[in-house]
Amino acid sequence: MSTVDPQVRDEPVDAAGTPLVDRRVPEQSSAGEGDPEAPRRASALWTVLGLLVVLALAAVVKVLTDLVPAVTEGTGMGRIAKSVEFPVYAIALGFLGNAVLSLTGVRARMTAAFRTELFIKIGLVLLGATINFAVVVRAAGPAVLQAVALITIVFLFTWWFAGLLGIDDKLRALLATALSVCGVSAAVAAAGAVQAKKEQLAFTATLVIVFAVPSIFLLPWLAGVMGLSPAVTGAWIGGNIDTTAAVTAAGAMAGEQPLQIASIVKVTQNALLGVVAVLLTLFFAFRAAPADADTAGAVATGSIPAGSASASSSPAAPVAGRRSLGMLWGRFPKFVLGFLLASVIATVLAQSLPADVLEPRLDAAKELQTWALTLAFVSIGLEFNISSAKEAGWKPVVVFAAATVVNLLVGLGLALLLFRNFTF
């Protein structure tokens, strides 16, 4: 009797038991198995799908902005519909899209496409092309004074009140910087400066968004109720709402002139972010210096062995000092330069080109700016994470609420003082 090798027992054999040549098609491995690029391609696909969602919602915003006032004209809703600006539709549709994508379980895979910061920076650079540089120059002085005073007062109050409630110093720094400068971007810069935990950064970013979204609608309404001038309205909005995207949304709702001043005030605050980050770095470094000195003394006396982790773990303050200029440039928001450059170019062209040549190009820049801002406002709603908001503890929330009230009151006083006589 013929014996079949166990290794080929599953192969086809003839009547004598001799294995035949296996002509079967080899089994294919499961899709993507063994392909290291598969996860990257899948991630890219979800990002593309997310971008398509953002673009589709922005297109719907454009339709609603044009269609709703036309359909409701002459009715009781016509007046209200005419006063509703595109940021309202964009944010509302963003939240609606957020809910739908979350319920279907795909939102988290698309988050790379929800680039609020990128879209808003593009929109602000294009906005610079529609602002005469003379307006920027006239507003720069009051804007700098307002930014310095507001950042100082709000930062110190938040730092003091958070310390009173016993909040960790690193979280205090994140809360104070986010509230006084420019929201999430400031929190990110502060987190790097003080080496905060990622959970503290996520927590602070959530609070910024939770408080910023209602302000988009509240501040323009309050400005109208109080009868504030366009310049004062813009300065109040730009100085008080924490995120640049929310400032731009609120400014757009208030009108073209308030939007210009709000943007100038906000980019002035953004420009000071690098200074705040450097000061925080130096503060935390020099606070560690006494501990370093104590450690060095302990090493000298032999109570801590030389070369141990305790003897070499703390960074030296001089290192932070040497890195300060590099950090200042690294933290400086580069889109501020783009905003100013676009304004300078547009102003120069206005003096050298006839109006019939320049106006169509400015109109095109304005249309692109509107699209970029619409994409940003849609992304605000899509990015919001309700689960992160639920994790907020009560002490930082109380600090954020109290500092927001101080910010509103001090900001209103400074805006009235510095911009009450401003003319366009």
Number of strands: 0
Radius of gyration: 29 Å
Shape: globular
Give the domain tally: 2
Summed up, the helix count is 19
What's the end-to-end separation, in Å?
106 Å
Strand content: under 5%
What class do helices, strands and sheet pairing give? mainly alpha
What is the overall pLDDT average?
76
> Order of SSEs, N→C?
HHHHHHHHHHHHHHHHHHH
| Poorly predicted parts | 1-9, 21-32, 289-317
Helix content: over 70%
Q: State the major sheet.
A: none
Would you kindly provide a brief summary of this structure?
By secondary structure, this protein is an all-alpha fold.
Can you describe what's shown?
This protein is mainly alpha-helical and 424 residues long. The chain folds into two domains: 40-114; 117-276 and 330-419, no CATH class. The chain is built from 19 helices and no strands. The protein has helices at residues 38-72, 78-83, 86-104, 107-110, 116-128, 133-164, 169-182, 184-194, 198-226, 230-240, 244-254, 256-271, 273-301, 309-312, 317-331, 335-352, 355-383, 386-390, 394-419. Helix 5 (116-128) runs parallel beside helix 16 (335-352) and helix 11 (244-254) packs antiparallel against helix 12. The N and C termini lie far apart (106 Å). 40% of the residues are buried. The model is unreliable at 1-9, 21-32 and 289-317 (pLDDT under 50).
